Amino acid sequence: MFDFDQYLGFLAFLTILTLGFWLMIFLVTFIVPYWIGGSIIEKLKEIKEEKKAKRQA
Structure pTM? Predict the structure, then answer.
């Protein structure tokens, strides 16, 4: 059915596919929410500082 070279190529393909899949899962579940949360916190800090500057002026 498969020659040894084809078998190694198939295993390499499955390995790369699996690594890519888990990398995408990691990015979607950890990195993206952290990035979005950080940007929301920074935006809220900016809004708070603008309100504080308006009150002082």
Answer: 0.61
